[in-house]
Design a protein that fits this description.
The chain has 8 helices and 10 strands. The longest helix has 15 residues. α5 links the parallel β8 and β9. The protein has an 8-stranded parallel sheet. The chain is an alpha/beta fold. 34% of the residues lie in helices and 15% in strands. It binds phosphoenolpyruvate and manganese (II) ion (MN). Manganese (II) ion (MN) binds next to loops.
Length: 262
């Protein structure tokens, strides 16, 4: 069970030679979407140099409008894995259908996005897999719903779950979502699972990524997932919240002074 009553010690997820949780801090970084080989390799090299330990990049994108860029899908996954091969960075990317599980065989961490947090069939399928799962909190999910979604994965036998607080809907319009910083200590009180924070999707604006990253570290998060892009102005998705590569490097230097990297 995900409840701390049944498992007192903090869980450490071991993946691709990295440890996540119990104070082992990791930064996952990369573009919202994989756009081309040149783009994903350039970003991968830069975030690796800056100290990120995982490369993120969406291939299957859950967009609000069906007319928006939907991701490069299978081809995007191939390019992400090519960036992994060239840089050695393990990768995290979102799955949208259990039909695609075979395509994700070489993905290191499978992301279950906010919009699918209560896709119970997908949760059950991921429960039968042995891949580490990055479970993002639903757009308006309560903590109980969030932890119960993780419980679905556990119930199928997969205990490699990392939780991600990525902001929730509130009345506030000046930010995309509202980072629920309480989620970090609440997860730690009620569960033994690692929890990371996504300041990029929480704020929706790049000028808040550094302060929200500091807040996450202060609250006890086990890591961060941050959007970074080689050319944010021309990004096909989420450019406004993406750091450019020098900005990402600067934010990483700040994070590295504050968090306990292995
Ligand atoms: C993402 O990570 O690109 C994403 C779509 O995030 P979320 O599911 O948190 O909105
Ligand atoms: Mn995004």
């Amino acid at each position: 069970a995900v409840n701390r009553k049944f498992h007192h010690e903090d869980t450490v997820i071991e993946v691709a030679g990295r440890r996540i949780g119990a104070g082992y801090f990791n930064v996952m970084a990369g573009p919202c979407s994989v756009e081309s080989e040149a783009q994903i390799v350039e970003v991968a090299e830069a975030v690796k140099r800056a100290g990120a330990s995982f490369l993120r990049g969406g291939a299957f994108k859950p967009r609000t409008s069906p007319y928006s860029f939907q991701g490069l899908e299978d081809e995007g996954l191939k390019l992400l894995l090519e960036a992994k091969r060239q840089t050695g960075l393990p990768v995290v990317t979102e799955i949208m259908s259990e039909k695609h599980l075979d395509l994700f065989a070489d993905v290191d961490i499978i992301q279950l996005g906010a919009r699918n947090m209560q896709n119970f069939m997908l949760l059950k399928e991921l429960g039968r897999s042995d891949k580490p799962i990055l479970l993002k909190r639903g757009l308006s999910a309560t903590m109980e719903e969030f932890l119960m979604a993780a419980e679905y994965i556990f119930a199928g036998g997969n205990t490699n779950v990392i939780l991600c607080e990525r902001g929730i809907r509130t009345f506030e319009k000046m930010i995309r979502n509202n980072l629920d910083i309480s989620a970090v200590p609440l997860v730690k009180i009620f569960s033994h699972l690692p929890v990371i924070v996504d300041p990029s999707h929480a704020a929706g604006r790049r000028d808040m990524v550094q302060p929200l990253s500091r807040a996450a570290i202060a609250a006890g998060a086990d890591g961060l997932i941050i959007e970074a892009h080689n050319d944010p102005k021309n990004a096909l998705c989420d450019g406004a919240q993406s750091l450019d590569l020098p900005q990402f490097d600067a934010v990483m230097q700040d994070i590295r002074r504050r968090a306990a990297f292995e």
